[in-house]
Design brief:
homodimer, 280 residues, alpha/beta, Rossmann fold, 6-phosphogluconate dehydrogenase C-terminal fold, 8 strands
Chain lengths: 280, 280
Amino acid sequence: MTVAIIGIGHIGGSLAITLKENGFADTIIGVDKSQQNLDKAIRRRLIDMDCSLEEAMQRSDLIVIATPVNALMDLVPQILDLTQPHQVVLDVGSTKELLLNIIKHHPRRGRFVPTHPMAGTEHSGPEAAVPNLFDHKYTVIIDPHDSDADALESVRAMYASIPMHMVDLDAKAHDVHTAYVSHISHISSFALALTVLAKEKDEGRIFALASSGFATTVRLAKSSPDMWIPIFEQNRDNVLDVLDEHIQQLARFRSLLIKRDFDAFYQLILESNNIRKILS
Amino acid sequence: MTVAIIGIGHIGGSLAITLKENGFADTIIGVDKSQQNLDKAIRRRLIDMDCSLEEAMQRSDLIVIATPVNALMDLVPQILDLTQPHQVVLDVGSTKELLLNIIKHHPRRGRFVPTHPMAGTEHSGPEAAVPNLFDHKYTVIIDPHDSDADALESVRAMYASIPMHMVDLDAKAHDVHTAYVSHISHISSFALALTVLAKEKDEGRIFALASSGFATTVRLAKSSPDMWIPIFEQNRDNVLDVLDEHIQQLARFRSLLIKRDFDAFYQLILESNNIRKILS
């Protein structure tokens, strides 16, 4: 099978290595608006060849769109215009409601399968492409009933080949849940980094004292704004709702500290320990 | 050398394995108020023998106190009362100002070396003891001029044997900096866990969707309240100050989302990316 990957960054590049390595794809074609990214992808052997979007649409069976989510708004309709009846198109973006509204009435909507593999790191670009990024993680398949049965089957086969687990959600539920379990984590890390940067001028000292606890909670603060701003734009209402809730939770801790009510503080920590059950 | 470790939990137990394995200690004596912890420590071969505090003070050259910080308030003066002129005592607690005020005028103050190895995980107890926990991390040595030169030298030799890097700070600076780079990370994780737990009732769904980003930012929410409440009690003013700053940073993000000012949001993310320079 020939797979075209549109957007050869961290996610697209990692998928390229994985699908070639496991034999799902015979040939991987890379498309990217940055020729520099394509050159890197060729040098790192992430892809077999690069070409224009139009040529890729002629030559491939499965088209994976792995660009930042703002680019999807124009790109998905444009790609669906070029899609032939035997081809399957999927995206791997972090937000879905807006995109799916835009293509709701597209005549080729059935060839498109919206997906969101829940994997990724704070790194970006083809230089951050790694094998095994997706192994045994979850992919969300969004609104599966709006895709043609054979298209859905091809996409499920692709994710199963990695292997990844799959879970189905509607677009609204997907966007709400990712606000909770992914988008708010990033804002929390950005804010934590700014808190420390604002307070600590002596960078050498932060470095010396930064324990592994700090390093993990602030890891996501290294994430690229080019990827994340479009996500926050598109999922703004859900993110705002969760951010409000998060600030209120922090305000509870603040209030208990002010009142020196360490018994209630203890109970809050115990309650938060329940996250153990969820993240084995 | 015979080393006594008072408090055979995650930190004390890990130190026990490490110092025995690298040959710094010939014999490790364990002391713990929980006989169950001592039994586990013997079964897991973390310690060579257990005994009472009094007996341990008779038999050891170096005494490491690795209890939660509330226990230090009574334990350190009590141990210094029993300390002989050739013995060296150190603690590994996360807060220092209060403790050092309490023992400021103790006649054996010079035998005591306050330290804080910046390592640890969200786990606790002797079952969480692991080798290599401290390798190449930083230990803070607090107020080194208040310790006898030979005591200081023994403690530096102990940390160098692991090996760990060392940095000197006064007690006030230590407590302020750990509020920034360790204590606030924990409150942020506790609050994030509560945010998600409050919003998501369907635990299976969180599990499925929880990306690695969420898992790392919320990892510290598994931490034990028995360890952390005493730290927050003792470092309350510094933690409150940093928590206020953190809530204000989150409020900036909230305000920009409300105003849909994604250009300024982009700049804030770029600014927070500077944390990269600090955490390689």
